[in-house]
Each structure stands twice: as C-alpha cells, then as structure tokens.
Design a protein that fits this description.
Elements: H1 12-38, H2 51-54, H3 56-70, E1 77-81, E2 89-94, E3 107-114, E4 134-136, E5 139-141, H4 145-164, E6 171-177, H5 187-198, E7 200-206, E8 218-223, E9 225-234, E10 240-241, H6 242-245, H7 252-263, H8 282-295, H9 298-301, H10 321-327, E11 333-340, E12 351-352, E13 355-364, H11 370-382, E14 390-395, E15 412-413, H12 419-433, E16 438-442, H13 447-454, H14 463-466, E17 478-480, H15 481-489, H16 499-508, H17 512-518
Parallel strand pairs: 3-6, 3-7, 8-16
Antiparallel strand pairs: 1-2, 2-6, 4-5, 5-17, 8-15, 9-13, 9-14, 10-12, 11-13
The structure holds zinc ion.
Zinc ion is lined by residues 114, 147-148, 180, 208.
Length: 537
C-alpha cells in the first residue's frame, strides 16, 4: 500500500468504490442486522431495573459482537468485556494497515457507540411500534436503530471499506457500551480497565450525534449539559375529597408551580438564575450564523408542530434562525418529562391528591458546571417551602458522583479544531457531497464526551482533546438508508439526524392536517408544508 497525503481527498475512482462498498454493505448486511436489533427491547438500565435478568442488553451486545467477528477482518480481536454488576461492553481492535501504524507510539483511532436504548415512549403511528421493526420507503422504523444501533455496524463497515480498496489506515479500536442512555455510569470503569489496550488514541469518533442535513458532512461542536431529577411536593398522607378540602388544603400542584416560577419565567421560558447561563463564544456565534444560512427555516420547521389555535401551525419560541439554533444549544431550558401522583384522566375523581411529582430535565449551556447547577437547583427548589410542604428535589445519579450527592452532567465545548482535522473533514465533505463541512452544536449531553476528554486522554496524547468529531446521530429512530450510505462513504456513519426527517420524511408522512381534514376539521392554513406526523419517539 502506498503512502498518500491524508489531507488530500481521495481520487474520485477510489471515493466511488468506497461509496459503492458502503451502499452494498448497508443494504445487504446492516439493514437486516438492525431490523433484528430493533425487535429486542434492550432498554438502558435506568429504564429497566431487571435488565440483567431480562437479558436484552446481553443479547444485543452478543448479536453485534457475532456480526463483527463474522466479518473475519484480518487481525481483528474482539472481546465482550464484563465487570460484575455492570452492563457488558464490546471492545475490538483492528491493526493498522499503514506502514509503522502498529508501532507502540503510533496513533490509534477510537470509534464509539452504544447498544442500550431509550424506553418505548408513546405516540407511535398505529402501524408502527418500538419493538416491531418496519421498513418503509427507505426508512427503518423502530426503537434504537439510529440511536445508536447503527454505530457498531457503521464503524466496522468504514474500516472494511478502506481495507477493501487498499487505502492505508491507522490502528482502530472500538468501544460499544450498554448504558449510555443511563448516563454511562459503567463507562469509566471499563475505560480504566481497557487503558492499557487502547493505545495512543489520537482521534475519537463518536458515532452518536446529530446532523443538520444529509447534503454535507457535519461536525458536532458543542453539547449542552443536564441536570435531571424528581421534584416532589407532599402535603397530605392520603388523598381526600376535594369538595371537603380544596381551598383549605393547599394544592400540591399549585405549590409545585410556585416553585417552578422561581426557576423559569413561564411567559418566555427563560431560566431565571443567571448562574445557569453562560457567554456564547464568538466562534460558535459565527458558526451558528453559517449553519442558519445553510439550513434556513428548517432549523425550526423540522419539528412536528401541531395544528394551532387559528388552524395554522403552532409556533416556536423564535423564528430567527440564529436565535433558534442558539436557544437549543447555548441556552438553558427546562422540560417536564414525567409526572407521578396523578391518576389517568379516566379514573380522576374529586380527590385532592396528596402529592405531585415532576421529573425535571434542565438543559445547561456547554460552559456551565453541571454539579454546581444541580446544587443550586436543589437549594432553589427546596428552601423556604410554601406551607411547610415536604419538598424534595433528587437529581439522578451520574457517573462519578458520590451516592446521595446532587450531581449534574457538564456540557461540552470542542477545543480548537486541529488544522489537519479541519482540512481532511472539509476535503471529505467536498469529495462526497460537493458541499462544505457544516458545524453545529447539539442540544443534548453525551457523557462519553466527558470520558473522552478526561478518561481516555489520561492515556492518550493531547490529540484527543483537540479532536472529537461527532458524527451524525439519530433522534427519531428512522434511518433513511441513502443518508446513512452517504455518511458511511466518509468513513464515519450517520443516524437520522432529525432535520432531514423533519423535511423529507415529514412531507412523506401523513400530516396531522391531512388526518384532521379527513375527520372534517379545519386544516392548517398558510403554512409552507404540512404539519409533520406525530409518529415517533
Ligand atoms: Zn445515543
């Protein structure tokens, strides 16, 4: 194999051959594997207390491991690593094919993904479901295929594509974990264990992020942090007749509302404590402007807006494209993601309920310290409880936090991109898409980034801190095959990043307006395209 200048794009015949290989692998081998994967309810431990006994995580890990081993890559070593009481993890190593690539100090590329899944959620289209895979119009519907089942297959296929064309590459290792959706509590222990086998990691490719579209290569530049936990307000020991007690016994819901007013301006959604905000770096502002110009109104139109009060679509917090991007990546925001203490509507009688509990999800800007924010949030909510109500806020446990201490996840802002990396990514985007590299932040936290920056780099050189290009990730669990093939061409991999789904898929899917029309109700008026169907997670 000849040495070549890595900063230069591949000759077009080689690039075409790579694309053809990835396309064929995708259609013939990856889609069938992902279809089997979707059918397994491998919910992350946070959502399946009996995960160990149920054995679903074990199954998806061993299935993927068998697939990888079945490829018989020369020199590939794979181990399903198991620490007692922790989710299993796939670790694989593939020796370098370029001269000197297997020397002790030669750089290694680490590819990351996960196989545990988010819970079912509701709102699936009637003919779809989380564990019943269905392939339709080039998209695979079901839970987990895009977040993050595809990662292990994309990683291996990228390596195989290069090898097949005889294109020299560095040594590669893969880490596919089983508890990412629970905040990766097991990952640090495995990284510690695997340190000696990782090698000199110079680049980590995290196959678990998002993309702006499928028309160019995207790089994730920053992620928000997160404090999530349960806010509980208890006022009675049991429910009593509301006719008897309301007006005298304060409503636990009203108290909870009052507490949330300390946190958030309910008119605008702005988080009130200044400590939850940060200054947006100038380069990120500049990149947000460029991304807004690329994506146009899709930055906000891609969401499945309902038909609104006047028959037109419901509205976002802002239609300014740059502000829309910044709101979801550089500003704090509160969501209530679950409730307890309420009966279903069908069995809601005249009872003043004894308590109200909300699961809160507070997204934090990349530069705000998650642990400090968790403490501040706990104090803000618990101090000076109205009516001496029993108010508790329990943040979820996070990796590395001592038991019982409030902990939050700190976001991530990529370090300055190394010039060589910027050049090769730009060259790859131009070669495969004919369009420049796009930069965007993502709204969600990914604990693997923390570990990459802190854990792995303890054994790697500084290169890791310079470079963590996250590839495209799926939010909505439908994979457009074409897009994935394209991304795989770049030696990375892609999930369904959301934006193209909001565009292409939404246009294909039955719109809520259309459904309403069939029911004889007012259709949305004056919109550029129909409401997206509410059929996904
Ligand atoms: Zn993921």
């Amino acid at each position: 194999m000849n040495a070549r200048d890595h900063s230069q794009p591949l000759p077009s015949d080689q690039a075409k051959a790579l694309a053809a290989f990835a396309t064929r692998s995708w259609d013939e081998e990856i889609v069938p594997a992902l279809t089997r994967y979707v059918a397994i309810p491998a919910k992350s431990p946070m959502f399946d207390a009996n995960w160990e006994r149920n054995g679903y995580i074990e199954r998806v890990i061993t299935d993927a491991a068998a697939w990888v081993e079945g490829k018989k890559l020369p020199g590939l070593k794979l181990e399903v690593v198991r620490l007692a009481g922790r989710t299993p993890l796939i670790f694989f190593e593939v020796p370098a094919t370029r001269p000197g690539g297997n020397d002790a100090k030669a750089p290694t590329i680490c590819l990351y993904g996960h196989l545990d899944k988010q819970p079912e959620f509701n709102g699936w289209r009637t003919d779809l479901g989380p564990w019943t895979p269905k392939y339709e119009n080039g998209k695979l519907y079901g839970r987990g295929s895009a977040d993050d089942g595809y990662a292990v297959y994309a990683a291996l296929t990228a390596i195989m594509a290069l090898d097949k064309q005889g294109i020299p590459r560095p040594r590669c290792v893969g880490i596919i974990e089983g508890c990412e959706e629970s905040g990766s509590p097991d990952l640090p222990a495995y990284l510690e264990l695997l340190k000696p086998r990782m090698g000199d990691v110079a680049l980590v490719v995290c196959l678990d992020s998002g993309a702006g579209n499928y028309d160019q290569l995207w790089l994730t530049t920053n992620l928000r942090g997160l404090v999530s936990g349960v806010l509980n307000v208890e006022i009675l020991t049991e429910g009593i007749h509301s006719g008897d007690a309301s007006g005298l016994v304060p409503s636990s819901f009203r108290i909870l509302r009052h507490l949330l007013e300390r946190l958030e301006d309910s008119k605008t959604g702005r988080l009130l404590p200044e400590s939850f905000h940060c200054t947006i770096p100038a380069n990120r502002l500049e990149q947000a402007r460029a991304t807004a110009a690329i994506l146009g109104d899709e930055v906000w139109k891609r969401f499945p807006w309902a038909c609104g009060a006047d028959g037109g679509p419901t509205l976002p917090t802002t239609t300014d494209r740059v502000e829309a991007l910044l709101n979801r990546t550089w500003r704090p925001a509160l969501s209530v993601t679950g409730v307890e203490g309420f009966p279903d509507l069908g069995s809601a009688g005249n009872v003043l309920r004894p308590y109200t509990a909300f699961k809160l999800s507070l997204r934090l800007p990349p530069l705000v310290d998650g642990a400090e924010a968790a403490l501040a949030l706990k104090t803000l909510l618990e101090d000076n409880a109205p009516y001496n109500a029993r108010v508790t806020f329990r943040p979820d446990g996070r990796a590395g936090a001592a038991a019982g201490t409030p902990s939050g996840a700190t976001g991530w802002n990529a370090p300055q991109l190394a010039p060589w990396l910027e050049n090769v990514l730009e060259a790859a985007s131009q070669a495969h898409y004919g369009a420049p590299l796009g930069y965007m932040g993502q709204g969600w936290h990914h604990s693997a980034h923390e570990h990459a920056a802190e854990g792995i780099s303890a054994v790697a050189d500084d290169g890791l801190r310079r470079a963590w290009p996250a590839q495209q990730r799926a939010r909505s669990e439908r994979i457009p095959a074409r897009a994935l093939r394209q991304a795989a061409d770049c030696g990375g991999g892609a999930g369904d990043g959301g934006l193209p789904v909001g565009g292409r898929a939404a246009r294909q899917a039955t719109s809520c307006c259309a459904r309403r029309r069939r029911r004889g109700r007012d259709a949305c008026r004056g919109r550029s395209r129909p409401c997206a169907a509410r059929s996904r997670n």
